């Protein structure tokens, strides 16, 4: 059983760092190099990883892992759709479902507003964790479960939070009120509120209400924040 657990830990760590070698993985996981090497050999033989650039000293995840993830996303979408539809009906705005992937959140489903002025984001787009409502909703819970340093934070607009201390303070507020908001921090024309969908080990996804910045008043921000928090809790309960 421990061999299986070690292999899964190596796979998870590799997915976040790929391409990576034995030494790097061993240091991060605090495992002997021999243990990591055996796990990599098992994962390679099972088709989960392959040499990066043909060099067996560094490894990356294969499409097999992505296929399993896509099947999991389909289950998440199925559970999320009725919750998203109710949220769209109650707000009249665009609803996004995103999942965490490395240092970003990825849009996997959306329900668009009927209003003529709207923001349309393509499925598969990646948004930065620190500069989007969905990202901050996820990151707040990630940091609540595990302490980790915040890397250099790039700016996208004048309102992007780039100071790590300021971001941590913002994420503490996210946890306290239950939802994150975006005040034009990724694109100045977009405003949003988002809440995390939680699993036993942390955030699985996030739901958001997204609007043109000109339409998000402070009153609506609070109202939509409450609604998206309720929706995320409903989806969390459905999945668990």
Automatic annotation (TrEMBL):
Pfam families: HTH_IclR, IclR_C
Residue stretches spanning the membrane: none
GO MF assignments: DNA binding; DNA-binding transcription factor activity
Matches recorded under SUPFAM superfamilies: GAF domain-like (SSF55781), Winged helix' DNA-binding domain (SSF46785)
Residues covered by the HTH iclR-type domain: 1-70
Keyword Zinc-finger: no
Domain of life the protein comes from: Bacteria
Domain IclR-ED stretches: 64-240
Keywords assigned: DNA-binding, Transcription, Transcription regulation
Gene3D superfamilies, A to Z: 3.30.450.40, Winged helix-like DNA-binding domain superfamily/Winged helix DNA-binding domain
Record-linked InterPro entries: ArsR-like_HTH, GAF-like_dom_sf, HTH_MetabolicPath_Reg, Tscrpt_reg_IclR_C, Tscrpt_reg_IclR_N, WH-like_DNA-bd_sf, WH_DNA-bd_sf
Keyword DNA-binding attached: yes
GO biological process per UniProt: negative regulation of DNA-templated transcription
Name of the protein described by the UniProt record: IclR family transcriptional regulator, acetate operon repressor
Organism: Nonomuraea jiangxiensis
Organism phylogeny: Bacteria, Bacillati, Actinomycetota, Actinomycetes, Streptosporangiales
């Amino acid at each position: 059983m421990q061999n299986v657990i070690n292999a899964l830990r190596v796979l998870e760590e590799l997915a976040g760092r790929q391409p990576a070698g034995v030494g790097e993985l061993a240091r991060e996981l605090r495992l002997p190099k021999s243990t990591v090497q055996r796990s990599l050999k098992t994962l390679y033989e099972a088709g989960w990883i392959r040499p990066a650039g043909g060099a067996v000293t560094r490894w990356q995840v294969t499409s097999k892992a992505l296929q399993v993830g896509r099947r999991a996303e389909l289950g998440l979408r199925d559970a999320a759709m009725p919750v998203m539809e109710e949220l769209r009906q109650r707000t009249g705005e665009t609803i996004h479902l995103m999942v965490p992937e490395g240092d970003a959140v990825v849009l996997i489903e959306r329900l668009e507003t009927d209003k003529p002025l709207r923001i349309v984001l393509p499925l598969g787009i990646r948004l930065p964790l620190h500069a989007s409502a969905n990202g901050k909703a996820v990151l707040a819970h990630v940091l609540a479960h595990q302490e980790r340093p915040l890397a250099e934070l790039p700016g996208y607009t004048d309102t992007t939070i780039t100071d790590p201390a300021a971001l941590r303070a913002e994420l503490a507020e996210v946890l306290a009120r239950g939802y994150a908001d975006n005040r034009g921090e990724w694109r100045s024309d977009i405003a949003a509120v988002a809440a995390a969908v939680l699993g036993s080990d942390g955030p699985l996804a996030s739901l958001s209400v997204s609007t043109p910045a000109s339409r998000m008043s402070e009153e609506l921000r609070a109202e939509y924040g409450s609604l998206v928090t309720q929706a995320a809790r409903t989806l969390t309960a459905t999945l668990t």
